[in-house]
Amino acid sequence: MPTSAFTIPALDNGMLAQRPIRLTMAQLAPANRFPDGSVLFSASEAQQIYNWTLSYENLSTAEWERFQSFLNATQGGSASFLFLDPIGNLLAQSVNLESSVWLAPSGLTVDPFADPDQPDSYILTNSTAQPLALTQTASVPGAFTTCFSLLAKWPGAASFSIGLTDDTATASHAISASQWSKQHVRLSSNAAAQTRTVSITIPPTTQVIVASPQLEVAASPNAYCQTGANSGVFTSAWLAQERFDSQSVAPGAHSITLHVESIRSL
Asked: Is the pLDDT of residue 24 over 90?
């Protein structure tokens, strides 16, 4: 994980953007044209282009000053920065808890579980005499409020917990769910943390079934967004605009519109 990075600043309420947020995506693939006029697109070199439109209204003076500092740090948009998708899942491999991005200590096994009501489910088994946690850490620089959520159940109604930790604070939530239910825990950072670590802690000699883990910049869970190798953390993004639609007419009445762009290989 990077030790330092900058991104669009957090709003006073810990959020990254105001609603509505507009996201458009397009695919780009190199094309080779042959003498007979045929065209072959190179799928192996295809890229996905993301473009977010973020419109901010009625910013406080402190928020406005943070945005001005951000624009100065990007040299008016020419420098790249780390960007957190404000409507995405910041965890990688949310559909594959056996992936190496999820860290499981010795004694905690993670196995696929066939459930007709919930695809991509996993059963977590703690065979030891001490609590063990499945964890994942994401790069989330900034004083953002983050929310970790998942679906969970265990017919025996055993109690377990989920947690969310940054560089300075920890939040946890105890769960006992005999049927599928959505659970979440929220953490409001007091400082410009660099990372967030989510955890699913299983008590000794206990099993729990989980699915759909999600970490997002939010105060409460939004609709689940499944991820594979890529998460909603974009390590290189930039401001895709030549000018900034901004206005500063009075304290608490500042506004600005930002167009953020990033590219990923497919």
From this structure: yes
Calculate the dihedral angle through the C-alpha atoms of 231, 233, 235, 241, rounding to the nearest 10 degrees: 120
Q: How far is CA 264 from CA 8, 51, 112, 152, 234, in A?
A: 19, 12, 29, 32, 9
Q: CA 260 to CA 88: how far, in whole Å?
A: 14
Average pLDDT along the chain: 90
pLDDT digits (tens, 9 = 90+) for 197-210: 999 999 999 999 99
Report the distance separating Cα 126 and Cα 109, nearest Å.
Answer: 7
Handedness of CA 162, 176, 117, 206 (dihedral sign): positive
d(CA 214, CA 221): 8
Domains of the chain: 21-87+232-265 (no CATH), 108-217 (2.60.120.260)
